[in-house]
Amino acid sequence: MLSRQTLRSVSAARHFSSSASRQTKVAVLGAGGGIGQPTSLLLKQNKLVTSLSLYDIRGAPGVAADVSHVDTASEVKGYAADQLDQALDGAEVIVIPAGVPRKPGMTRDDLFNTNASIVRDLATAIGRVAPKAHILVISNPVNSTVPIVASVLENLKVFDPRRLFGVTTLDVVRASRFLAGIAGTDPADTPVTVVGGHSGVTIVPLLSQSAVGKAVNGEAWEKLVYRIQYGGDEVVKAKDGAGSATLSMAYAAAKFTNQLLRALGGEKGVVAPTFVKSPLFETQGVDFFSTNVELGVNGVEKIHPLGPLSAEEEKLIEACLPELKKNIAKGQSFVSSS
Ligand SMILES: NC(=O)c1ccc[n+]([C@@H]2O[C@H](COP(=O)([O-])OP(=O)(O)OC[C@H]3O[C@@H](n4cnc5c(N)ncnc54)[C@H](O)[C@@H]3O)[C@@H](O)[C@H]2O)c1
Fold first, then answer.
1. Where are the catalytic residues (predicted)?
2. In CATH, what number does 24-166 get?
């Protein structure tokens, strides 16, 4: 049995730790889905998350009951279809994997018709209930859904470009894993910066900027770039109609969320590629672009330039920009016409 003295010090330590640490409520919208479920599980394991709010039009209370039994300190609550406002209330970070995934033969743009309105409606609720939240968009096509969220928040007069992120981390994770596979290195020591957008030719890996990547040339380079740009198709094909990447995507979502939470908590020097409102190609009509971004207590702290490019990478950027411009404009005009 614990002595009174011990109990007193345990309770004092508890009081100290809860008052000293930040309270961070993270909401997952689409928590019942293929990405949402493992993302919720991984976020439950993150000590920087103190409260987890799980929302979906179906199944979120069940996922929440399940995840809530994991023995970490955070509180988990699930919300049914008609409880979106409650789910968003007080959320500091909102992760959005809601929407339909691809089937074999589909491009991410083929998802536009369904996912555009899902994301628009979720963004409208966020603008009303949690206008200061950091929003992490996973729902495809990211090149269009991020501009949709921005336009909705702009119309509501609450848009802050420092707090909106398209999650492109899976491209970064794949680039590092695929390059390490060729070079025989540990992916942890084989980082690759991936810029542009999140689909096909808009995904531009800057292999020349990494010591390991620089050594890959000619046909091997072409094959590697293609694999990074179209790696998602490998999963769609292998799942044979059952969806797209969910587990590696959840890993990537949890990784980027953790980077953002560390920066929001005051850690300096957290840098990650992410698709944000960016001045880099604004003069060419490309308002959103992914490059390395330094994250800080307010979200986007500093957008890094592309850095030195090889001649081949310059060509990749040239191919990326017109497609990206089209995708962004499609998202923006969806909101202005709806
Ligand atoms: N950014 C990336 O790198 C990346 C990678 C893979 C997949 N994705 C995208 O993520 C999205 C989700 O993929 P998935 O495999 O989890 O799909 P899924 O169908 O398994 O899950 C989607 C979930 O969203 C829910 N949902 C639908 N409408 C909703 C709404 N209005 N509010 C809340 N929830 C809603 C569904 O009920 C479902 O549970 C797809 O658009 C997919 O293309 C993005």
1. 198
2. 3.40.50.720
